[in-house]
Amino acid sequence: MSELRRALHRPPAPPPPKWVLLAGSALLRSDPALALTGRRRVPARMLTAGFEFSYPELGPALRDLLASR
């Protein structure tokens, strides 16, 4: 979210209270851990196969997407 806010030139937002996230996850029937903890994923299989991303970092990818709007 911080990268998206930076790309959109939006000010930082305070994190929502935990009870709001828990209530939202109950309404959406999703796992509250998705919002309460970070997730870092690496496309290991693609990288092992030799795939090269045009934008390996999120910031430049977002800026490129938003520049084309």
The rounded Rg comes to 16 Å
SSE pattern: HHHHH
Q: Tell me about the largest β-sheet.
A: none
The shape, in one word, is flat
- Number of helical stretches of at least 4 residues: 5
Specify the structural class: mainly alpha
Note the quaternary state here: single chain
How many individual β-strands?
0
Number of domains: 1
Work out the helicity level. 40-55%
State mean pLDDT (0 to 100 scale).
89
> pLDDT below 50 for ≥5 consecutive residues: which ranges?
none
Q: In what range is the share of β-strand residues?
A: under 5%
Give the end-to-end Cα distance, rounded to a whole number of Å.
Answer: 19 Å
Question: What does this molecule look like?
Answer:
- The protein has helices at residues 2-7, 18-28, 33-36, 44-48, 58-67.
- With 69 residues, the chain is mainly α.
- The radius of gyration is 16 Å and the shape is flat.
- The two termini are 19 Å apart.
Outline:
This protein has 69 residues and is mainly alpha-helical. It has 5 helices and no strands. The protein has helices at 2-7, 18-28, 33-36, 44-48, 58-67.
Task: Draw up the topology in text.
Elements: H1 2-7, H2 18-28, H3 33-36, H4 44-48, H5 58-67
Output the keywords.
69 residues; mainly alpha; 5 helices; flat
